[in-house]
Every structure is written in C-alpha cells, then in structure tokens.
Design brief:
The chain is built from 6 helices and 5 strands; from the N terminus they run H-E-H-H-E-E-H-E-H-E-H. By secondary structure, the protein is an alpha+beta fold. It is globular, with a radius of gyration of 16 Å. Bound molecules: acetyl coenzyme *A (ACO).
Length: 179
C-alpha cells in the first residue's frame, strides 16, 4: 500500500516542525513525520519491540493515549509536551523507525526546559542505514525549537558509540527503581 499523505492523517504535532535537512538526508523511499493516530495499524508497536516488551493495548486504548498527548492547540509549538515521530516507507506505508522527546518544564535556569529523548527504535532489517541518526537529529531539533537548553537520554553501554556519533557526551549516571 503506498504511503498515506500527511494531509490525510491525524498527527501529534505540526509536520512543519520537522527540519528539512533531515527530510533531505533520508533515502528517497522513506518519509519522516509526526506520529499519526493510526500508526497503530502501520506497525508502530512492532518496531518498538526491538527495544523492549510491548503489550498491544488495542486500537481504542492506543488512540486515547495518543489523544492525551495532544496539546489544547496543536498549531502552536509552545505548550506541546510530547513529540513522537515515525519514519515510514513510501512503498508499504509501514513504520520502520520511531523515537520520542518530551519537554520537561523546570523552575531553575530561568524557568528553563529540558528535552528527554526516549524509545528510539529502528526495525531490525533497517538498522545500520543512518535512520537512528535521523531520528535523533529530528528529536534534538524539536527539543531545541521548543526552547530546551539541553537534550538528554539514558542508554546501555553498547549504545554509547551510537549516541556519540549523534553528538552526545556521557555525563553522570542513570539510577532506576522499578515498581
Ligand atoms: N555501536 C557502535 N556504533 C554504532 C552502534 C553500536 N551499537 N549503532 C550504531 N552505530 C554507529 C553506526 O555505525 C553509524 O556510524 P557511522 O556514521 O560512522 O557510519 C552511526 O552510529 C549511526 O548509526 P545508524 O545507522 O543511524 O544506526 P541505526 O539506524 O541502526 O540505529 C539504534 C541505532 C537506534 C541503536 C538501532 O540499532 C536500534 O533500534 N537498536 C535496538 C533498540 C535500541 O537499542 N534503541 C536505543 C535505546 S536507548 C533510548 O531509546 C534512549
């Protein structure tokens, strides 16, 4: 099935926020855009399985979750907290890579904001083609456009070289407490 145009999709945020430099750097058969509500049917959760356990909540719950991330005014970049992106195949309309950044609003640094990158996943057969790099470049651009003074993430030791290639530096340690 050929790719559904952005104009026919319900997107999480305005596609105008995606940098043209990333669009131009992608292979011509791939397209980067905000997550669409029906990416549920395009394999979004399948792609995330390369990263962790994914339990299928069903489309209704997925849609309600998506809608809870929409700001009151989707045309404004200010006020948006959650940015999730999809890279889709123009031939199959399937999601092949995804990632997210959420904007934390702080009281320090003059009421500054920090972008937290999470859940970067490239489908197994598409890894090693710079899609992970393009996802990170897009998310950092979104974070910076939202006014964040830094963008941070947690990762395993084996992914450190990937994030270094994306321009990140190791700082401090991650602590976790599971429920
Ligand atoms: N070790 C060393 N170098 C690496 C690694 C690695 N594990 N992964 C990528 N690189 C290098 C590539 O060789 C490339 O280098 P080059 O520019 O010199 O050619 C550069 O990093 C960019 O690599 P991409 O091709 O963009 O990587 P890819 O598209 O495969 O995406 C990713 C990397 C996201 C880690 C992917 O392999 C994946 O989905 N893995 C499974 C899930 C995962 O671990 N996700 C990250 C979790 S951390 C988080 O979500 C915050």
């Amino acid at each position: 099935m050929p790719m559904t145009p952005d104009s026919q999709l319900t997107l999480l945020f305005s596609p105008d926020l995606i940098p043209n430099s990333v669009r131009d750097a992608l292979p011509s058969d791939l397209h980067v855009r905000p997550l669409a509500v029906d990416d549920y049917h395009r394999g979004h959760l399948e792609v995330l399985k390369v990263l962790s356990v994914v339990n299928d909540p069903g489309f209704d719950a997925y849609r309600a979750h998506f809608e809870s991330m929409l700001p009151a005014n989707t045309s404004a970049s200010k006020g948006q907290t959650y940015y999730v992106i999809s890279i889709v195949s123009k031939q199959t309309d399937k999601v092949v890579a995804t990632g997210s950044v959420f904007i934390e609003r702080k009281f320090l640094r003059g009421l500054g904001s920090v972008g937290h990158i999470e859940d970067i996943a490239v489908s197994k057969d598409m890894q090693g083609k710079k899609l992970g790099l393009r996802v990170i470049q897009t998310l950092v651009a979104l974070s910076e456009k939202a006014g964040c003074y830094k963008t941070i993430l947690n990762c395993s030791d084996e992914n450190i070289p990937f994030y270094e290639k994306c321009g990140f530096k190791k700082k401090e340690n991650e602590m976790a407490k599971y429920a």
